[in-house]
Amino acid sequence: MRKFLTLFVFAILLLPAPVQALPPVTISNQGILGGYMIDLEGVSNNSTVLSAGGDMTGIQVVEVYTATWCINCVDSEHALMDALENESATVLVHHRNISETEDPFGTLEGDERWIELYGETSNESTRMARAPPSVVFDGSRMKIGSTADGDSLESDYAEMFADKHEYRSWDIDSEFTWTGDNRSGMFAWKMDAVPESQSTSD
Question: How many domains are there within the chain?
Answer without folding.
Answer: 1
